[in-house]
Amino acid sequence: MHPSIPATLRDQTLGLLSSGAATSRADLAEALRVAPSTVTAVVRRLIEEGVLLEEGSGRSTGGRRPRILRLRETDGVLAVAELGGKHARVGLLTAGGAVRDTAEVPIDIGAGPAAVFGTVHETFARLQATTAPGQALLGVGVALPGPVEFPSGRVIGPARMPGWSGAEPAVHLAHAFDDFAGPLLVDNDAKAAAIGEYVTRGQDTGDMIYVKAGTGIGACLVSDGQIFRGGRGLSGDVTHVRVADSGERQCSCGSRGCLETVASGAALSRQLAAPGTPGMSLQDIMVAVHDGDPAVVTAVRQAGRLLGVALSGLVNFLNPSSVVVGGALSSLDVYVAATRSMLYERCLPSMTQALAIEASAAGPDAALTGLGHLLRTTADVRSPS
Ligand SMILES: [Zn+2]
To answer: Span 7-71: which CATH code?
Structure first.
């Protein structure tokens, strides 16, 4: 610090500004009972240090309009991202976990963690440059579309994530963020979205089964406000539950008749493909449902019913307060309604009497919100290696 500015004067200045008791150089001179030249020296020093901004004009007191002194927000930001097979949703959150800015960027998940996290970092840097320049990075969290071991963050048996097997995502993530040494989190996307949904809805939600129904299907039980992770952290893999009436299709896991083969976006895409075409995109399917295309509506309804079949066993076993369907397919009322009707049909009446079965309230930012909550409330889960 500059030798001509006593530490007490510096602290008093910061105290007056942070409490709002002073907002201009004139206020400071009056409150501190020092000469304007002393205030000028203190203010100049604090601006040089980057803790103070002087901008705009304050209320006029008859003479010259004073410029306003404002402490720079130094509480920092969180970098979060949810990865899909072809897109990443990158977010900048406040230190308190509120979503301040997001961007969607194309990725190829098969390119592996180094390349994908490089894109995530570039995108976040772009958001930060416009939204929160100069603010400290307090944590980095990423949600992956596959089974993630906890707390190591390793991807286990990633059928839809070639190039990730055996990798240490946390190490790659820290490296991509300029060897970031703060809190780091790599989690499964459905778990991140589930806790984001819970935080958005509040504690009245009670014990909740959350299903993320997009290209694939993931799920998570939130009990007592906590993610139920299971022994190795791999809980919630409802996608490989075998369902009746599934047509015994071969699944990516090597088994047959899994929920994923009949109720996921990928399954619908394949079923609805015109002969000789690669398949309908999720976007195409949504448009067709909104247009009332009978073949597509019927297929989506059947997919929702089969999700209900798979969930009915869980509801009877766990007696949750709510079942929430999130992910891209949750925007299709016919899918959620079919899931609901099948749960009513297959579950004990005592289980469904007080059971809320609803589409997500948190929407597309569910996983980003959840990552922010986990970063703020859990210890560093960086891989030990
Ligand atoms: Zn399977």
So the answer is: 1.10.10.10
